[in-house]
Amino acid sequence: MKFLAVTAPVLFSIVHHWIPAVSALEAPGGPLYPVDVVAQNYTDDEGVLLQGFLSLPSTATQVALPVVVVLHDSSGPDTYEQQRATMVARELGYIGFAADVYGLLTDIPEDTGGWAGPYTELIAQLTSNATLFALRIRAAVDHVKSLPEVDAERVALIGYCLGGTGIVHYLNSGEKGASAGAVGFHPSIPMVRPRPGGGGAGAAGQVFGGARRRGGGR
Questions:
Q1: Is residue 120 classed as helix, strand or coil in its secondary structure?
Q2: Any alpha helices (H) in the chain, and if so which ranges?
Q3: Which of 6, 66, 96, 109 has CA atoms 20 to 30 A from the CA of 59?
């Protein structure tokens, strides 16, 4: 089951469709929430073609707006992430961008469960290579900053599961000033290794996860 929260406290509200105050069909972000995005191709520094999905608020404005970059989980930038980008635009009035960290030409294998096989190997290409993971995220940040609608000083990153792990890699990568803030949910923290010499992204960051301690409790 996917669960993605965005930033605390302002963006957190766009992802509560699993804890709704009303029925799932009425709650923002339910499975029938519309998708209103435009596909945009861009490349990373190695020339890999990526495809993200941009959502703009319906109200026209002459003022550049903040943007929230949504990093996908292991299934890729599918309907779920495109819905989140749409929610950012519709519910918050920001610009939403569902980023791609796999690559447009990458075939995503079927998730057969377990911890082995082609699906896991695809994920490991990023989780075991912090440099590559950060490079793919930076490509999305650079792309949205180049858009005339975007306030390049106000770029936020959010991610769940694989995307949350990417947030940690990115914050640990030494990038300076690339984003204003980043929030990761349910990341695989053990996969992240400290960057030699310290450093960080120069951005406010929060990571949310849970693990049961020995003896009970969380």
A1: helix
A2: 79-87, 118-127, 130-145, 162-171
A3: 6
pLDDT value, residue 122: 94
Tens digit of pLDDT for each residue in 31-58?
Answer: 889 999 999 999 999 999 999 999 999 8
For residue range 123-134, list pLDDT tens digits in order: 999 998 989 999
Number of Cβ within 10 Å of residue 210's Cβ equals 7
AA letter at 102:
Y
What spatial distance separates the first Cα and last Cα of the chain, rounded to whole Å?
20
User: Which among 67, 95, 76 is positioned nearest to 161, based on CA atoms?
Assistant: 76
Q: Identify the segments of the chain with pLDDT beneath 50.
A: 1-26, 217-218
Q: Tell me which residue of 6, 9, 183 sits closest to 88, measured CA to CA.
A: 6
DSSP 194: P
Whether 183 and 8 have beta carbons less than 8 Å apart is answered as yes
Give the Cα separation of 53 and 44 in Å (integer).
Answer: 16
CA distance 164 to 147: 25
Query: From the centroid of its chain, how far is CA 124?
Result: 17
Q: How far apart are CA 127 and CA 116, in angstroms?
A: 14
Identify the three-state secondary structure at position 131: helix
